[in-house]
């Protein structure tokens, strides 16, 4: 009965510890939410741990008080067992299954979203018309996000990408016809609202799916600006270099 007695407290502490592990002691939280939410997650984790410790202390005190005034009759179970049922003040035993997700998050944090999530989503492009974009910084190559390159390639009437060498980083996804893409997921708040941005890469062999790469090359114009024929944008690669996954794997909208 002791384990069931402290079940809710253990669940609270495990959940709070898991949240603190991915926020206070590492950058793993960036796999799930934006950096600005970190302080709120830390406060939530600390609150859950304190609540769990307080709950355990109160339960211990309550059972000690009950034990002092309770005389257990021969042939009868304790205060948590009545008529053979497996529930009592601490709740049903099945509630212990709720600890599994908390333990999993504590010991094996899930990875960031990757090619599976990108492949399940139909192409979603920002609802914007063709127009001019601000000038790109001087010098080559110019660093762009996958989403920035895509927007300029599809909607920029000023053709600011023309004649420029660009460099972008993302993970590899593959198409059904042998094409491959450098891909990033864009988030507004957390991984749950992620959408996909991708650029077709030509001129180099495809790395394995989900490999993170930095690609350098030049824009390959195709299709009419703002039309479906211009999607996805194309990059003629001069260099494809494998890199480590960044601490923050998502681009911001």
Automatic annotation (TrEMBL):
Start and end residues of each DUF1980 domain: 153-250
Say yes or no: keyword Transmembrane present. Answer: yes
Chain intervals for the UniProt region annotation (Disordered)? 66-88
The Basic and acidic residues compositionally biased stretches are 66-86
Q: Transmembrane ranges?
A: 41-58
Q: Which UniProt keywords apply?
A: Membrane, Transmembrane, Transmembrane helix
Under the heading Pfam families, the entry gives: DUF1980_C (PF21537)
Instruction: Read off the InterPro entries from this record.
Output: DUF1980 (IPR015402), DUF1980_C (IPR048447), UPF0703_membrane_permease (IPR052955)
Source superkingdom = Bacteria
Looking at the keywords, is Acyltransferase present? no
PANTHER family, A to Z: UPF0703 PROTEIN YCGQ
What's the protein called, per UniProt? Repeat protein (TIGR03943 family)
């Amino acid at each position: 009965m002791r384990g069931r007695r402290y079940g809710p407290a253990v669940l609270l502490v495990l959940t709070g510890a898991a949240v603190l592990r991915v926020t206070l002691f590492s950058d793993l939280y960036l796999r799930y939410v934006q950096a600005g939410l970190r302080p709120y997650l830390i406060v939530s984790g600390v609150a859950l741990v304190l609540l769990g410790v307080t709950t355990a202390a109160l339960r211990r005190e309550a059972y000690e008080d009950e034990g002092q005034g309770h005389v257990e009759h021969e042939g009868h179970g304790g205060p948590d067992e009545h008529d053979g049922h497996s529930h009592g003040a601490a709740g049903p035993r099945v509630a212990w299954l709720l600890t599994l997700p908390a333990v999993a998050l504590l010991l094996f944090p899930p990875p960031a979203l990757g090619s599976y999530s990108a492949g399940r989503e139909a192409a979603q492009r920002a609802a914007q018309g063709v127009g001019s974009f601000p000038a790109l910084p001087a010098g080559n190559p110019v660093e762009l996000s996958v989403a920035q390159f895509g927007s300029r390639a599809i909607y920029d009437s000023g053709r600011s990408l023309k004649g420029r060498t660009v460099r972008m980083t993302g993970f590899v996804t593959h198409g059904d016809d042998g094409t491959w893409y450098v891909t990033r997921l864009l988030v507004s708040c957390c991984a749950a609202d992620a959408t996909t941005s991708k650029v077709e890469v030509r001129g180099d062999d495809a790395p394995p799916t989900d490999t993170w790469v930095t690609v350098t090359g030049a824009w390959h114009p195709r299709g009419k600006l703002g039309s479906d024929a211009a999607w996805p944008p194309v990059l003629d690669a001069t260099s494809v270099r494998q890199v480590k996954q960044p601490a923050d794997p998502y681009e911001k909208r």
